[in-house]
Structure formats: structure tokens, C-alpha cells
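hey so i finally got around to running the thing on that chain from the lab meeting. sorry it took forever, my laptop kept dying and i had to restart like 3 times. anyway pasting the input first so we r on the same page abt which one it is
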Amino acid sequence: LTVHDLSFVHFPETFPAVLVDYLNQVVPWSVSRATHVLADSISTKIDLQEQWAVPEDKITVLYSGVGKEYQPVKDPDILSRVRQHYDLGKDPYLLSVGTVQPRKNYQMLIRAFAEIAEQFPHKLYIAGGKGWMEQEMIAEAVRQGIVDRVRFLGFVADEHLPALYSGASLFLFPSLYEGFGLPILEAMACGTPAIISNSSSLPEV
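ok and heres what got predicted. didnt touch it at all, straight out
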């Protein structure tokens, strides 16, 4: 059994209540039945030990990795085509990648960006499919008066991600909690400077 994270235990308020109830029933039951458990990080391994007293020798940490396609994209034609595909214009931009849900902390990111937006020409692009409770995050840009500087790009095709990372001035990942955080590796593999929250597994990554 692979356990990616216990975010529903630590931050239940960032999930629909029905999903929290379901996960609280299914995950510990599955862990107890498993012959062996794979964890995405030492952080998740420790969570399993502390939350459900899973024996240490029953857990193996297996880190994620990225494919060779994640490398700096320097071809101006490729960078330009991806910009055109997502209608990014020519302004410099900051990028965050991940499913649009409260745990990703996008509302805080938008508030932080609002404090410095007038000092820089950058746009803030958030790439990721809709998860849940996304309307509050989208509304935050309106409340902060920077709706013209923040865009949710929606789901981004895998083949476009290397160019999207490479074209960004900074990659931002302010998540409250992650079992691993694969976008961090993707961004760094593309040579993009990254600002990451200091929580859960993220220092490991």
C-alpha cells in the first residue's frame, strides 16, 4: 500500500467533510491490512507511526522523481508557443502549480503577492485543475484588487509544464502540508528559483 500523505488528518478543514469521514475510515483500515506500506517521505512515515502506531519496519520511504523532460527550456520558439497557448502575453510571471484546493494555500499567496504587486511588473499564474472550495481562492484576487494580475490557468498539459516552469521568474509553493510535493522537483529540474513553505515533507524535497 502507498500512503501519499495524511493531510486529511492534519488539515481536515481544507477538505469537504464527507471526504474527511471517508478517508478516516478507509486509510487506517487499509494501512492495518497491508503487508507493507510505502510512504512518499520521511515526514509521511513519521505521521503513520505517530497517528496509527504503524511499526517502523512495516514502512519504506520511496521518494518520487521527475522524467528527463524536466530540464531548462531555452528554445525561444517553444517558450513563445506555450505562452501563446495559455495567452500569457509578454509580461514576466511568477508560477505556482497544484490542484486548486485550500491546502495549497493560494489565498495566502494571493494576499502576499498583493502586497508587492505594485513594485514589480509580474503576473501571478496558478496552474492546476479544480479541486474543491476553489471559489474562495478565485475571489481572493478580487478582494485584493489585483484580479488583472492573477490568473488561474486550469489544468496544464504535461508536455507544456517544462516550458511553463522555465519561463517563470520564480516558482512559488506555499502549501500547508504535502506528502512530497512533486512540482518543486519539476521546477528545480527546469532551473527555476523556488520559494517553498517550510512544512511537512517540503524541507526534504
